[in-house]
Amino acid sequence: MNVRKLSVNKACIFFAVLLLVAMGTVSAALYGLTQNITAVWYVLLFGIFVLVCAVCFMVLVRRKLAIFSDAFCSLMDDMLSGNMQPKQTVEEESLFYKIKYRLNRLYEVMQENKNGIAQERADLQELISDISHQVKTPIANLKMINNTLLENEVPPQKQKEFLTAQASQLDKLDFLMQAMIKTSRLETGVISLEQKQQPVYDTLAAALGGILLNAEKKQIDVQVECPEHLDARHDRKWTSEALFNILDNAVKYTPAGGTIRIYGDGATVVIAQQYGAGNRETLSRVVHTPPVLSLPPRAELTSLRVGVDEGATITPMENPFRHKIVIFGSSFTHGVSTSRAGMSYPMQIGRNTGLYFCSIACSGNCKLQPYFADYLGDVKDADAMVFDAFSNPDAKMIEERLIPFIERIRAKLPSTPLIFVQTIYRESGNFDLRSRKIEEDKRDMARRQMAEAMKRFDNVYFVDKADLTGTDHVTSADGTHPSDLGYWRWAQNLQPELLKVFRKCGIR
After folding, report:
1. What span, in angstroms and rounded, lies between the C-alpha atoms of 268 and 443?
2. pLDDT confidence bin for 229, thresholds 50/70/90
3. Residues ≥6 apart with Cβ < 8 Å to 292
4. How far is Cα of residue 416 from the mean position of the Cα atoms in its chain?
5. Which helix (H) or strand (E) holds 222?
6. pTM across the whole model
7. 377-392: b or e for each residue (b if 16 or more CB lie within 10 Å)?
8. Which of 56-60, 459-463, 504-508 has the highest mean predicted lDDT (pLDDT)?
9. What is the CA radius of gyration of the chain?
10. Which residues 6+ apart lie within 8 Å of 165 measured at CB?
11. Is the pLDDT of residue 179 over 50?
C-alpha cells in the first residue's frame, strides 16, 4: 500500500475497519478463553466507545484541514491577484495560524517590493525629466556665447573668459548627458552621489562660470566671500548644478544694477539678493543646513546671542515640512555622548529625509509609564510616532506595560501609525555576561510582546534590528551610548526601515 497516495477519507475508512477487526478478534479470543458473554459485551462496548471517539476526532481533524485548505487557497488567490489585502483571522496560537501568519507576512513583503518598484520607476521618470530640463540651460548659454563671439569683436582677454565659460557649460552638458544615460540603465532609478570632503570654493566657482556673462549684461555685482579652506562633504557636480540653478534665478530676478552676494557661513553657503539699501532677501542655503539650533549637549547654557544686521527684523518662517514625526525614547534618542545635538539619529534622519522629527527623550526614564502614553496621546498633529521604548525597561516591565501603554495611546489616537524600534546591542555585553543576558531577555520579550501588539492593534509596526550601530565594536563612547560614528550608522540603518513603514502610511 502506497501511504503517500492514500486520501484522508480512505485513511479514515481503513482505520475504522482495522479497529473493527481488532475488536472482533479480541472479543472472539476473550470468549474462547473465558466463555463469559458479559465480558465480551463489555469489550465490545468499550471498543464502540473508542471507535466513536476516533470517528469524532477524525471528523474534527478533517474539518480543520478543510477550513485551513479553503483559507490557504483563498489567501493564495489574494496573493496571486495582488488586488487586495489578505483577510486576517484571529485564531488561537496553532500550526494553522503560524502558517497563515507567515503567508500574510510574505504577502506584505511582496506588496512592499511591488510598491517600491513602482515608486522607483516614478522617481526614475521624474529624474530623467529633470535632467532633460536641465540640459536646456547650458545649450542656451552655449548659443549665446557662440553668437557673441561671432557677431562682436571681442578682446583676447574677453575671448579667453568666454571660452572658459563655454568649456564650463560643455562640461556641465556632458555631465548631464552622462547622468541621463547612466540613469536610464539603472533599474532602481537611484544615482549614487560621490560625496567627499572637498572645498566649497571650487564647487562655487564651477557654478559661477555659467552666470557671470548674464550678470555682466545686467550690470549685476556678484560678490563672493567664501574662504578657500572652507570644506564640506558633498558631491561637487550635483551641488554645483544646484547652486547654478539658484544663481541663475537670482540673475534673472535681480533688477539691473543690483547685487548678488555669496558667502560661506560655517558649513553653509548662503546666496542673497540685494535690491537696495537694507533690503536683502536670502534665496537659498545649500550644502548643509541644520533644521534646528544645535546647542552643546550636557552643557549649562548661561546666555545665547544671535547676530543680525542693523535694522533687520526677525519673522517666523512658514513650516517647510510636509509631515511631523514624533520620536519618543531614551538617552539614545536624546543623543547622549554625541559631539553636538545635531548628531543624534533623529536629527540626522530628519536632515536626510526632509521630514520634521520632533524628538522627545527622557534619558534613563523611558520605561513605558502610563503618564508618558497620556502625554503622547495629546499630540494630535503627529503623522506618525516612533518609539525607542525598550532601552530602559527590563523584560518584566516590557511584558507588563507594553500592551497597556499602546492601549492608552490608541484611546486618544486611534489611527496614528506607531512604530516601535528594537533596542540596540550594547558593547558592554562583550565583557559583562550579566548585562548581555539582561539585554537578550529584553529583546526576546520585545519580540513576543510586539507580535501580540501587532495582532491586537492596527497601524502598529516593529523594526527588529539590534545591529543598527554595526558589529565591529568601534562605535560606542562608553560601552552603552554610541559615538558620532555609531549614531551615523544608526541613522543610516534605521532610515530605510522607517521609510518603508512611512510609505505604507502615505508619508513621503
Report:
1. 41
2. confident
3. 341, 342, 347
4. 17
5. strand 221-225
6. 0.44
7. bebeebbbbbbbbbbb
8. 459-463
9. 35
10. 141, 145, 209, 210, 212, 213
11. yes
Averaged pLDDT of the chain: 77
Per the CB < 8 A criterion, the answer to whether 462 and 317 are in contact is: no
CA angle 440, 445, 446 (to 5 degrees): 95
pLDDT higher than 70, residue 172? yes
Q: Is the pLDDT of residue 69 over 90?
A: no
SS3 104: helix
What whole-number distance in Å separates Cα of residue 112 and Cα of residue 92?
A: 27
The Cα angle at residue 287 between residues 281 and 292, in degrees rounded to 5: 75
- Per DSSP, the three-state class of 45 is helix
Q: State residue 83's pLDDT score.
A: 53
* C-alpha cell, 447: 519580540
Beta carbons within 10 angstroms of residue 266's beta carbon: 10
Lowest mean per-residue pLDDT among 16-25, 106-115, 262-271:
262-271
Question: Do residues 272 and 261 make contact, with C-beta atoms less than 8 angstroms apart?
Answer: yes
| Cα–Cα distance measured from residue 403 to residue 399, given in angstroms and rounded to the nearest whole number | 8
Long-range Cβ pairs for the range 277-285 (8 Å, 24+): 278/309, 278/311, 280/309, 283/246, 283/249, 283/250, 284/246
- Under 8 Å CB-to-CB from 294, ≥6 apart: which residues? 340, 341, 342, 347
C-alpha cell recorded at residue 136: 536646456
- Print the SS3 string covering 112-169: HHHHHHHHHHHHHHHHHHHHHHHHHHHHHHHHHHHHHHHHCCCCHHHHHHHHHHHHHH
| Integer Cα distance of 341 and 299 in angstroms | 11
Lowest-confidence range among 99-113, 225-239, 247-261, 333-347? 99-113
